[in-house]
Design brief:
heterodimer, A: Rossmann fold, eight-stranded mixed sheet, 5 helices, B: TIM Barrel, 10 helices, 11 strands
Chain lengths: ~220, ~250
């Protein structure tokens, strides 16, 4: 079962329609206790990092417990940023800390000094950084749809980066945790393929031996 | 590099596209979903469904139209025309719209922008500004260009941004329907005054008009309707043309 987390940040209709188009059965749990039978958890999101604060302690604990139990987790847009330690957008709101790094505001100048609009809105290219089943069937330079003002740094978890003034993490994976800064549900056939690649990776990953999906500093 | 976006507008009344319904090769001429499908195959970056209906029955048909398009096409979908309240926006979003576009309602009740931005995020809120040149500035009009709003487009765009709008859809009343090119000066004036994307609209006649509006006009996106309706593969050909002129596009 795929659990789609609704924490009141925007609308889930598009994500639901994309999952339905892929034939992926899903539901939206009303309480953390309903995550018990989830094999996949998707944290969508648009808007402000502070909205993730609505996922209070009980949700955080339930999601982390499910990931520990072998569940696969995907964060989209702000949902991906939430996987990190935090964001300068809302310094007092902690992220889940499953991925190392903090999200920062995109620059409003490119390296040549030309003005850049922030938010970064529209189609931009994915630049693969390493091989991953998530990129099956995705040509280098394939474009996906973004709408965001904050972004995560490029680290060893980055599967594909995107350039907008700086290079930032667009597609990330670490153990059973994955993130997409773009909106796969709005990125045409490339987006649906990326979502499908993620879902197809789920059974193999949940059979895998314990991976380092948590940072070592976490208890 | 961020691509410049090409957006197709579908004017819909009672569930039927009311412009460009007679092109060949489309089985259900006038069916918004069929037209959206064709644009999607040609590589359109976004779709706007503009509702030109005034009746309750038409409104219900609109929800069906949005749903039919959103079910099978996974690119950003904006719905505009007649969105006057949070309830109207809710209905559009519930049906599958990713963004709603407000014009007259935003001028009359600017706080509505903030309420919708808080509810759905700024990325879901577009302010449509219809303006024409007047006294060295750009006068804003409400009610489909019928009522002067006593505001300047640059100043209104700035206010809309500060109230939570995530994009500006700027239409030149002077150029609309003329096919004489976008108003690049007006587009640049607004685009350079705000940090949010500006979508240029009104006056698209040929491919070079798009080159102009993305360079001189500093537009982030350009919207057109009939130029795409009448020629098979116009969207793809336009993007090839733009790329040949050094403009980044998604091909």
């Amino acid at each position: 079962m795929i659990a789609l987390i609704d924490y009141g940040a925007g609308n889930l209709t598009s994500v639901r329609k994309a999952l339905a188009a892929l034939g992926a059965e899903h539901r939206t749990p009303a309480a953390p206790g309903e995550l018990a039978d989830a094999r996949v958890i998707i944290v969508p999101g648009v808007g402000h990092f502070a909205a993730t604060a609505r996922l209070e302690a009980a949700w955080r604990a339930a999601i982390l417990a499910r990931v520990d139990a072998g569940c696969t987790l995907l964060g989209v847009c702000v949902g991906m940023q939430w996987l990190y330690e935090g964001s300068t957008e809302a310094p007092d709101v902690p992220g889940l800390g499953l991925l190392r790094g903090r999200c920062e505001r995109l620059p409003d100048r490119d390296p040549s000094g030309a003005r850049l609009k922030v938010p970064h809105v529209g189609w931009n290219a994915l630049e693969p950084r390493r091989s991953s089943p998530l990129l099956d069937g995705i040509e280098p330079g394939s474009q996906v749809y973004f709408t965001h003002s904050y972004a995560a740094p490029v680290t060893e978890d980055t599967v594909a980066a995107t350039e907008y003034g700086i290079r930032f993490a667009a597609l990330v994976a670490r153990g059973r945790v994955a993130g997409m800064q773009f909106h796969p549900e709005k990125s045409g056939t490339a987006g649906l393929r990326l979502l499908r690649n993620f879902l197809e990776g789920v059974p193999a990953q949940s059979d895998a031996v314990e991976t380092d999906h948590r940072l070592s500093r976490r208890p | 590099m961020l691509s410049k976006r090409i957006i197709a507008c579908l004017d819909v009344r009672n569930g039927v596209v009311v412009k460009g319904v007679q092109f060949e090769g489309l089985r259900s001429a006038g069916d918004p979903a069929a037209l959206a499908r064709r644009y999607n195959v040609e590589g359109i970056d976004e779709l706007v469904i503009l509702d030109v209906t005034a009746t309750i029955e038409g409104r219900r048909a609109l929800a069906d139209t949005i749903g039919a398009v959103a079910r099978e096409i996974f690119i950003p979908l904006t719905v505009g025309g007649g969105i006057r309240s949070e309830a109207d926006a809710d209905a559009a979003v519930e049906a599958g719209a990713d963004k709603v576009s407000l014009n007259t309602a935003a001028l009359e009740t600017p706080e509505l922008l903030t309420r919708l931005a808080n509810r759905y995020g700024s990325q879901a809120v577009i302010v449509a500004i219809d303006a024409k040149r007047a006294n060295g500035g750009y006068a804003v009009y409400a009610r489909s260009g019928q009522a002067a709003a006593s505001r300047d487009a640059v100043e209104w765009a700035r206010e809309a941004e500060s109230r939570g709008a995530g994009e500006i859809l700027l239409t030149s009343i002077d150029r609309d329907g003329t096919r004489s090119g976008f108003d690049c000066e007006m587009t640049a004036a607004v685009s350079n005054a705000v940090s949010i994307p500006v979508i240029a609209s009104g006056g698209a006649g040929g491919f070079d008009d798009f080159v102009d509006v993305f360079t001189r006009g500093a537009a982030d996106a350009a919207l057109a309707a009939s130029i795409f309706h009448y020629a098979e593969s116009a969207v793809h050909d336009l993007k090839v043309h733009l790329r040949a002129h050094g403009i980044p596009v998604r091909l």
